[in-house]
Amino acid sequence: MAKLFKRLQMGDDQILSENGDEDDRALYALVSEPDNRREIEEYFEVIGRHMAYGDGYVYMYPDSDEGLERKLAALLDLLHLTHFLAKHLAGLIPGYEFSSIDLANSCQGDADAEDFLNRKYPADSLLEQVGQVLRELNRKGYILDLGRDRYRVLAAVNYLMEFGELIQLGDKAEGDVE
Amino acid sequence: MKNSTEAIFEPFRARPREILMRLYLSRDNGVAAERFDTDDLRPAAEQLERIGYIYLDSVSGRWSLDQRVEELFESLIGVGAVTGLKWVDQLIKDVGRILAEIPRHKDRPETIQTLSKRLARRLSQGSVTLMQSLASIDRSATFEFRTEPDLALKVASLNNYLEDCALMQSSFREIEDLLLHNDFFEASVDNELRRQRSRFLGTISEGRQRINVILGTVSSYLSRVQRGHQRLRKLEQIHQLLVTGKLLERSNLEAVAATVKGPWLSCAQLRSPVPVSVLATQPELVRKVFESDVQHRRPEAVKLSATARRRETVVNPPIDFQRYLRLFLAQEQDLYTFLSQRPELLTERVRQHIFCRMLASPQCSRSLYNTGAFAVSGRWRHAVILPRPTSHASIHARATATNGQAV
Lengths: 178, 407
What we know:
The structure holds two protein chains of two kinds. By secondary structure, chain A is α+β, with helices and mostly antiparallel strands. Chain A has helices spanning 2-9, 22-32, 34-45, 68-88, 100-107, 111-120, 126-140, 157-166, and strands spanning 15-17, 49-53, 57-62, 97-98, 143-147, 150-153. Chain A has a three-stranded antiparallel β-sheet with strand order 1-3-2. The longest helix of chain A is centred in the middle third of the chain and has 21 residues, at 68-88. Chain B is mainly alpha-helical. In chain B, strand 3 (54-56) and strand 4 form a beta hairpin. Helices cover 69% and strands 2% of the residues of chain B. A two-stranded antiparallel ribbon of chain B has the order 1-2. A two-stranded antiparallel ribbon of chain B has the order 3-4. Classes of the chains: A alpha+beta, B mainly alpha.
């Protein structure tokens, strides 16, 4: 329990993916085991934390929420990021492997991508900007640094991609998202 | 003096490709057994090292191969998968031709014997190569799924692998039919031929199972890629509205924001330095720290029940944090153990209260941090609190120096 809590709550990387590094895979297997789920959920409820199980990922969330305004701002930020990543990382499908050069090549000449990078990751060159993006994604647990400029997209990105599925478009789109 | 044509072709004539192949073939877990210490080979190896295909492990003195080398050869094998299909097709034709030839030579036992041997040899080769072909289809499909950056190409390619599998299944049926329903095999007295036929039929049976697994894998890849493709299209629509500032009015974004949970959308960051060992044994205690933590950060967000408030009042003794901090820093136990050993703290509840207040108090936390009693490493914001056993005097001095702001 302590290990799980430490992994999911202490630091920036708060999503556990089924295809992460060796430690994460082992922890994910333990957490996603149906027999263990109830015990884990009951344990963390005591301290006001709840488990959320997604498509190949797990995270923990607290009772307390940010205000709606801050959540909306955060969600808009995440949508910008998700669109950028999905467009330039082959649809952001878990398991996809790439290098920083692949990402930079894909962004080069794309006005949307350059605008996004200039706003969020100002730097002198495209490669530096891409480096910043990759470091942040790695820190947040969306990709795994395999070493020697190779990266793997982790199942945690499904958390991002699912926002797109929840959003209904239309002039008067309203209502339930559950 | 080299002429220009020689200069152009020099890199292709050089050793790197040959060396790479030798390293690849001698590898075990990505580390090659081959060494290239001789002067004429070393430059070529260094050339491969410069482009990042191999690197020298200074401890073992052996070359390790970059993942790209594996992928390079896997892709070459992938090309082999297609030829593997052609090969199976060729095998069927060969077996059919030999079987068709046999009746014409029924009066020539020596020729029949030669043909039997040729057939046995062909089936023997088939048993080995068939499984290799299937393995290479599996590897190539996985490689394509993992590395092809273009979604449309990826879908097309995975569809091709599905078709390859279907063709392979059909080839299996065809050759099985030839081997099972030809009287020649039943009548043959050539033991080697009978053995190879039976082995090959076994390989086909194994191959069928393998191909079903591959079909499952490739289908799963394909459905994931197709789903990714659909999601991307939806994201493109969302993005259009996002950049024109119309997303809020033309979607249910607000309702989504109100319900979604998860990292970056809630107060999920834990800032209290709770020792993990304590969490494992005393969740109730940790909850108390959270409450205090939230109270310090966002007082308006905390709604303690009347009972809880009363309890706070009851267990709230005057605490000389400075004294506890000083004593804590002068010993080597973690904070909770230290408090548990204080004789004046009579009840568990009082000890827990002081523990929680000390950890949740920003001033006290800062002071602990300044004295080096917090370990901060990697992605941990705060780790287990253990005072450093060395130089108590200097820690004491630092604690005293931060006295004004800490307590």
